[in-house]
Design brief:
The protein is an alpha/beta fold. It has 10 helices and 18 strands. Helix content is 22%, strand content 24%. The two termini are 34 Å apart.
Length: 464
C-alpha cells in the first residue's frame, strides 16, 4: 500500500497516530462509503484506440462528431500514423505540415489525444520500397516537425519512435543496422529533443532501450528514478505483436526481456496491438495448460501494465476476447481505473477553521497514470461557484495498479462562507489549454460522483 505519512497536524497525517480505530473510523469525523461503478469509462490517456492513417495533404482532419462517436464507445485515443512516403528523399512540404497541424487541432477541439507515429512505408515487399528514408533525411523531417509537436504537445499522449523500417516498426529497413546502430540512437535522441520533456517515446522492443542506452536487466526504473526528464525515464515500449507467440514474433529474446519490460512498464507507457491468434491471447489459460508462460491475456496485461491497445487489429484476437468474455474487462482496466472506497470528513465544519479529509481509493486498472496529472480538492457553493481549491500532496502517477492509496489532508475552509457547500476531487489535465475542459479530466469509477459539465468528482456535501 502506498501511504504518505507525516506527523499529526501536517498536511498529510498518519492515520493511526491520529486516532483511527480498528475499523478505520476516525473520531470526530463523518464517514462516507462510495459505491463502485461497473461502467466502461471514456477516461483520457487510456483504453482502446482508433487507428488513423494519413497519406497525403488532402486528408481531412478528424471531426468532433467522430470523436464523440468514439467517446460513446469509451475510446478517447487515436493512433495518428503519418505516412511520409512521398517525401522519402525530400523535405516535408508546407501543405502536409499544415495537415499535421490540423489533425492535432482536431484532437484538441474534439476532446481526444493521440498516439503519434511517423513512417515511410506501408508494407515490407519489394514493391513497397523504399521502406524508410536515410538517417540524414529522417533527422531533417524530425527538425521540421518539432515546432508543431511542441505546439500541440498537450494532446500528444505518447510518441512511438517510428521513422525506421516498414510501418515505422524498426524491423524491415534499408538504412539502419542492428540494435546498437548509432543512427537508430540519433533518431531517438532527436525525438527526445523534439517532443516535450514530459512526454514519453516508445521503442518497439526492450532490446533497443538496453542496447542504445547501455541499460542492463538489473537497471530498471524505481519510484525514485521514475518520471524524470531523461532517456531512462522517458523511454517506454509498444508491442505490436502482443500475445501472438512465445516471444511475440521477436519482440522478446527470452524471459529476461519479458521481466525487464514488466518492471519498466510500472513507470513507462506500455501499449500496442495484437497480430495473430495463439493460446497466449486467450482470456485465461486453456484447460490442461502446462506452459508456464501462457498465463492468459488478462493476467499478462496486468503483469505488463498495458495502457492502450488497437481496437481494430487483430480482429481474430478481439473476437476471441469477446467470445471468451473478457473484452469488457479489458475495456475497463486498460490503463488506470480509480475507485473511491471511503471518505472521512470533519464533523461540524466551520468557515475559517481546519477541515480534515481522508480518502481511501484503489486502482483497479492494469497500469498507473503516466503523464503529469493535477489533483485537487474543490469547494463549491450550492450554485456550483468555486469557492476554494487546494492542491493534493499526492501524485496520481503513483496511485499504482492493484494497490490502495490513502490521502489524508487538512485544509482551512474559507472565511465568510455559509450555507450548503460541496467538496469534490478534481483530476484535470495540467496543460493550460486543456485544464478547464472536462473531457480531459479523470472520472472516478464510482456511482453518483461525476459531474460531466465540470469534470469534478463529488465527495461530500455539508453545511457551514
Amino acid at each position: 500500500m502506498i501511504r504518505n505519512t507525516f506527523a499529526c497536524g501536517a498536511l498529510l497525517l498518519l492515520a493511526v497516530a491520529c486516532g483511527k480505530g480498528p475499523d478505520d473510523q476516525i473520531a470526530g469525523m463523518e464517514a462516507v462509503a462510495y459505491k463502485a461503478s461497473d461502467e466502461v469509462i471514456p477516461n483520457p490517456e487510456r483504453g482502446f484506440y482508433t487507428p488513423q492513417e494519413i497519406h497525403n495533404a488532402s486528408a481531412k482532419p478528424i471531426s468532433k462528431d467522430n470523436v464523440s462517436i468514439n467517446r460513446k464507445q469509451a475510446r478517447t485515443l487515436y493512433l495518428l500514423e503519418f505516412h511520409l512516403t512521398d517525401f522519402v528523399s525530400s523535405d516535408i512540404p508546407a501543405d502536409y505540415l499544415e495537415t499535421v497541424r490540423k489533425y492535432f487541432a482536431s484532437m484538441r477541439d474534439g476532446g481526444a489525444k493521440c498516439i503519434l507515429r511517423f513512417c515511410y512505408s506501408n508494407g515490407f515487399d519489394e514493391k513497397d520500397k523504399p521502406w524508410d528514408a536515410t538517417p540524414e533525411q529522417a533527422l531533417r523531417h524530425i527538425a521540421q516537425l518539432k515546432p508543431i509537436i511542441q505546439e500541440y504537445g498537450d494532446i500528444i499522449f505518447v510518441v512511438q519512435a517510428g521513422f525506421i523500417g516498414s510501418w515505422g516498426e524498426w524491423y524491415y529497413t534499408e538504412n539502419y543496422g542492428d540494435s546498437k546502430d548509432p543512427n537508430r540512437k540519433a533518431i531517438v535522441d532527436a525525438l527526445l529533443d523534439a517532443v516535450p520533456a514530459d512526454r514519453q517515446i516508445e521503442l518497439r522492443t526492450p532490446q533497443f532501450k538496453m542496447d542504445l542506452y547501455g541499460y542492463s536487466y538489473s537497471d530498471t526504473l524505481t519510484r525514485a528514478t521514475a518520471h524524470q526528464a531523461n532517456p531512462k525515464g522517458r523511454l517506454g515500449g509498444h508491442n505490436d505483436c502482443y500475445l501472438a507467440s512465445g516471444n511475440d514474433q521477436g519482440t522478446y529474446r527470452g524471459k529476461n526481456d519479458r521481466a525487464y519490460w514488466s518492471s519498466e512498464s510500472r513507470y513507462t507507457i506500455m501499449g500496442g496491438e495484437t497480430c495473430g491468434l495463439s493460446n497466449y491471447c486467450l482470456c485465461v489459460p486453456p484447460e490442461g495448460n502446462t506452459n508456464a508462460t501462457v498465463i492468459g491475456a488478462l493476467a499478462d496485461m496486468a503483469v505488463n501494465h498495458f495502457t492502450y491497445l488497437n481496437q481494430s487489429y487483430h480482429s481474430g484476437v478481439i473476437g476471441r476476447w469477446r467470445s471468451g468474455g473478457c473484452f469488457e474487462e479489458i475495456q475497463k482496466r486498460l490503463g488506470y481505473r480509480f475507485v473511491l472506497e471511503k471518505g472521512q470528513y470533519t464533523k461540524g465544519a466551520k468557515a475559517g477553521e481546519s477541515f480534515r479529509v481522508v480518502l481511501d481509493l484503489r486502482n483497479d486498472g492494469f497500469a498507473a497514470v503516466q503523464n503529469p496529472r493535477d489533483a485537487e480538492l474543490v469547494l463549491t457553493d450550492k450554485g456550483g461557484k468555486v469557492l476554494k481549491t487546494w492542491s493534493l500532496n499526492s501524485d496520481p502517477r503513483y496511485w499504482m495498479p492493484g494497490e490502495k492509496t490513502a490521502i489524508d489532508q487538512t485544509v482551512t475552509l474559507p472565511d465568510g462562507v455559509s450555507g450548503e457547500v460541496t467538496l469534490s476531487l478534481n483530476l484535470p489535465d495540467p496543460c493550460e489549454t486543456l485544464r478547464d475542459n472536462p473531457l480531459f479530466s479523470i472520472q472516478l469509477a464510482n456511482e453518483d460522483v461525476w459531474n460531466e459539465s465540470t469534470g469534478f468528482n463529488k465527495l461530500y456535501t455539508f453545511t457551514l
